[in-house]
Amino acid sequence: xxxxxxxxxxxxxxxxxxxIKPDVVAQPHKVQEIKEIILENEFYFIRSNILKWTKVxxxxxYADHEGKFFYNRLVDYMTSxxxxxxxxxxxxxxxxxxxxxxxxxxxxxxxxxxxxIRARYGLTDTLELDMA
Length: 132
Prior knowledge:
Blueprint: E1 4-8, E2 11-20, H1 22-25, H2 28-40, E3 44-51, H3 55-61, H4 71-78, E4 83-90, H5 93-101, H6 106-112, H7 117-121, E5 130-131
Antiparallel strand pairs: 1-2, 2-4, 2-5, 3-4
């Protein structure tokens, strides 16, 4: 998990990383909808970038998943197009981001957390928004 802490006034802001995957980035209106959802949930955008990963970039980022059945498919998918990466901040950012994202399985999210980002925008269990 990539995370850090920023102290500001009486509040401690925690950082988390949101990576919007290629299928969503290919539809800019969906990226905008997700950004609005993020802002509505009291996150601050600290830094944002549109980028394209190399295979090595994706392998490093997903090294914890190496050897799992979906690893090669995930690496190929994450290098198939542009990503929208965002460093987000708010109090308790990691827990709040996980809650906003919903369950890690898209079909479970659709059933148990239908308003979550993953339920609304995820395609399959490997083709979805990433939570880090």
